[in-house]
């Protein structure tokens, strides 16, 4: 939300570069994103070594690492949804509130946040649905450890590599399709309901 707000309303040098960096996971191969995460958050990485030394936090080959990899990959999708929602807000509403004496926090909480709520909700659900299908970044950064970092796509991949695993892969694929479809339908329904309540 804050990143989208900054990109929509902010006017500062390097804004275009920040925008490009935020959307980079959309165009980079997922394996490259996973490798970059290894460089940054690995035990010898700049951030990873610091987290390990000061807090004892290790992300590589852990469940938290799998979550991080998924979050990085779906971040551009979520950012785009929230950004489009923010861009659809009439600036005149905030200007009117400002003339009535409302501070920036009041304007954000009472005008921007409620009007952007459909986009935020859609971003959350679509982000969850998209993360269910993440493969490359997760297997590169968090590996494929059953019961720890094995996600649904990795479980399907493992089943397909095992003799006679086609039936298991088929069942897991059905689960993946159902979850993704349910997430998309839920996002659409909730977004429509919020828009109706907001009179949009």
Structure description:
With 200 residues, this protein is mostly helical. Helix 1 (2-9) runs parallel beside helix 6, helix 6 (63-87) packs across helix 8 and helix 7 packs antiparallel against helix 8 (104-131). It has helices at 2-9, 15-22, 24-27, 30-41, 46-55, 63-87, 91-99, 104-131, 136-141, 152-161, 166-197. One of its GO terms (cellular component) is plasma membrane. It is a multi-pass membrane protein. Keywords: Cell inner membrane, Cell membrane, Membrane, Molybdenum, Transmembrane, Transmembrane helix, Transport.
Strand content: under 5%
Shape label: globular
CATH class of the domain at 70-197: Mainly Alpha
Largest sheet: none
Helix content: over 70%
What are the low-pLDDT stretches, counting only 5+ consecutive residues below 50?
none
Mean pLDDT across every amino acid position: 88
State the CATH superfamily name of the domain at 70-197: MetI-like
Termini, distance in Å?
20 Å
Number of helical regions: 11
Structural category is: mainly alpha
CATH topology of the domain at 70-197: MetI-like fold
CATH architecture of the domain at 70-197: Orthogonal Bundle
CA-atom Rg in angstroms: 20 Å
β-strand number: 0
Q: Give the H and E element order.
A: HHHHHHHHHHH
């Amino acid at each position: 939300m804050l990143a989208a707000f900054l990109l929509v309303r902010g006017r500062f040098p390097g804004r275009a570069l920040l925008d490009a960096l935020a959307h980079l996971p959309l165009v980079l191969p997922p394996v490259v994103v996973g490798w970059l995460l290894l460089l940054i958050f690995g035990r010898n990485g700049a951030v990873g070594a610091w987290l390990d030394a000061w807090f004892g936090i290790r992300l590589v080959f852990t469940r938290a690492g799998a979550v991080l990899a998924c979050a990085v990959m779906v971040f551009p999708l979520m950012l785009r949804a929230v950004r489009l929602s923010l861009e659809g807000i009439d600036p005149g509403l905030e200007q009117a509130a400002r003339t009535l004496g409302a501070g920036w926090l009041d304007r954000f909480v009472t005008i921007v946040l409620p009007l952007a709520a459909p986009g935020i909700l859609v971003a959350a659900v679509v982000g969850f649905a998209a993360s269910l299908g993440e493969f490359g970044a997760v297997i590169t950064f968090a590996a494929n450890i059953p019961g720890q970092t094995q996600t649904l796509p990795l479980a399907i991949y493992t089943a397909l590599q095992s003799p006679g695993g086609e039936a298991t892969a088929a069942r897991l694929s059905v689960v993946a399709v159902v979850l993704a479809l349910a997430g998309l339908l839920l996002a659409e329904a909730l977004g429509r309901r919020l828009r109706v309540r907001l009179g949009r």
